[in-house]
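Exercise 7b. Backbone tokens:
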């Protein structure tokens, strides 16, 4: 056993595992505020379900040394008797424990179906999704993995290459996303539905975790800590950075803005596209692949409006198109001088044979995953149900979780200045303080969102007896445009704070003056006489 290789593979397994909560944050930040927990739960639950199915039958179906070119046998059922695996992506001499390989491949099996949830965001029933996961992880993923990642696999024997999952992961998940979309249909109100992301900083954190974990995703697939691993890591980063730039450039030219969402989306598109190529191409090839990926995937976002499919978070444009594109481009850029186990692509004197093998593999994987995914989804839909009814889609967190992602107010500071109303109390017999008299009016106004502490202190000094602040969306006649992956959204509401101030008669004018100083329009200020119970 090689200790360095073993340690490297185990670390990479952890990196791929880390991508799963990263995906949850990435998708969770881009869905509406009332669907955050549901989206994250759909990404996290594969950790439980597919861990079990992989240990029981998934691994043996994919990587059993017995079986044929299509499917493995059950000699490694429940990992009771695991032989040393047969490898194909590296030269002879890999010496790592069998369970290290089992664990590493398990992480790929877990994250693959989780990718498609971005396409179906806002529609899936949790129970139906869990059954789909279990079925897909047994009937679809192991077979595709065997075809391309096992020496006996028929696409491997044909000559097709897939370094780390352009077809096994991204193309199969993307095809499954298309199939499930056909079954569950569009969200209520689409395409006029214009929901806004609830937390783009959260999306950025998730995207950063994905990028970090992708080094284990791609650099670990050779199962050795060597020069090919270093090349794969470098290619991964270069392609992601290059794709980010071209995506931002296309955004700028088409919409007039280069956005944070575009930057992260471009990076992820480049990472997905380089995945099948990472250990087979040079750094220059990875750069060109990334530049192509950012451009193609950015334009592919618009396909959903042309073909009328409701891909909520553009999984098809980023992951499906990216995985297929990278698998295709490998037929041009593959370089045997980088990895001796690879054939040469068209640009390196290899002719068109590898390109033909890649096309055959892409078509077969996409059709296989699409057909079986559609059958699984259709059966679930017609029995226990896979789609949430229309009204429930607006608040899935309450329907499925009975909770909200954001339950705390953004105003958490405590008063630091005692106002003029603070001395209007008397002490009871037990030492507690109570107001000497009830306030006369409740003043309500809409104010600006900045300087909350300053507003609080000024109102208390002006004589406020009590104060409540709440977030408020106020209609205005000023229309602004927001961009989300090229989709323009017209907004005519502005964020404000609604202040409700209890005040006595003698301090009313002073409180109103403070509210006006903090941006309250006279037309938004209301006075209500208080009648105590």
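Sequence design result:
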């Amino acid at each position: 056993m090689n200790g360095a290789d073993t340690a490297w593979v185990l670390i990479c397994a952890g990196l791929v595992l880390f991508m799963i909560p990263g995906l949850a944050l990435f998708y969770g930040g881009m869905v509406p505020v009332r669907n955050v927990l549901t989206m994250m739960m759909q990404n996290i639950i594969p950790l439980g379900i597919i861990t079990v199915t992989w240990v029981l039958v998934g691994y043996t179906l994919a990587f059993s040394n017995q079986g044929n070119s299509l499917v493995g046998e059950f000699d490694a059922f429940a990992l009771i008797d695991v032989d040393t695996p047969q490898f194909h992506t590296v030269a002879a001499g890999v010496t790592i424990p069998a369970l290290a390989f089992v664990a590493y491949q398990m992480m790929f099996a877990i994250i693959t179906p989780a990718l498609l949830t971005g396409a179906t965001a806002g529609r899936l029933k949790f129970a139906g999704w869990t059954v789909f996961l279990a079925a897909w992880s047994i009937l679809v993923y192991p077979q595709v993995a065997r075809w391309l990642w096992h020496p006996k696999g028929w696409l491997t024997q044909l000559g097709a290459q897939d370094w780390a999952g352009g077809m096994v992961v991204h193309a199969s998940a993307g095809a499954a996303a298309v199939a499930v979309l056909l079954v569950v249909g569009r969200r209520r109100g689409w395409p006029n539905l214009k929901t806004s992301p609830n937390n783009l900083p959260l999306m950025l954190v998730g995207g950063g975790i994905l990028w970090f974990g992708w080094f284990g995703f791609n650099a670990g697939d050779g199962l050795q800590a060597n020069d090919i691993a270093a090349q794969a890591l470098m290619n991964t980063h270069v392609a992601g950075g290059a794709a980010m730039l071209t995506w931002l450039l296309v955004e700028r030219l088409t919409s007039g803005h280069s956005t944070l969402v575009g930057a992260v989306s471009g990076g992820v598109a480049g990472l997905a596209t380089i995945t099948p190529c990472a250990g087979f191409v040079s750094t220059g090839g990875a750069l060109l692949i990334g530049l192509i990926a950012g451009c193609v995937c950015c334009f592919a976002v618009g396909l959903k409006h042309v073909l009328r499919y409701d891909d909520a978070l553009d999984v098809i444009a980023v992951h499906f198109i990216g995985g297929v594109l990278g698998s295709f481009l490998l037929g041009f850029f593959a370089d045997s001088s980088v990895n001796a186990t690879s054939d040469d692509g068209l640009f390196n004197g290899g002719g068109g044979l590898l390109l033909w093998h890649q096309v055959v593999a892409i078509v077969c994987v996409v059709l296989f995953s699409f057909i079986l995914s559609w059958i699984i989804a259709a059966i679930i839909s017609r029995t226990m149900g896979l789609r949430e009814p229309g009204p429930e889609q607006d608040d899935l967190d309450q329907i499925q979780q009975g909770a909200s992602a954001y339950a705390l107010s953004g105003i958490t500071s405590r008063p630091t200045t005692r106002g003029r109303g603070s001395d209007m109390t008397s002490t009871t017999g037990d030492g507690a303080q109570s107001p000497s008299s009830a306030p006369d009016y409740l003043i309500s106004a809409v104010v600006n969102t900045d300087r909350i502490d300053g507003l609080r202190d000024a109102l208390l000094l002006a004589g406020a007896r009590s104060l409540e602040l709440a977030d408020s969306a106020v209609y205005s006649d000023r229309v602004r445009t927001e961009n989300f992956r090229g989709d323009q959204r017209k907004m005519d509401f502005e964020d404000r704070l609604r202040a409700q101030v209890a005040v006595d008669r003698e301090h009313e004018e002073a409180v109103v003056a403070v509210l006006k100083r903090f941006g309250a329009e006279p037309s938004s200020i209301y006075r209500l006489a208080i009648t105590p119970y």
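Instructor comment: The longest strand covers residues 466-484. Residues 353-382 form the longest helix (30 residues).
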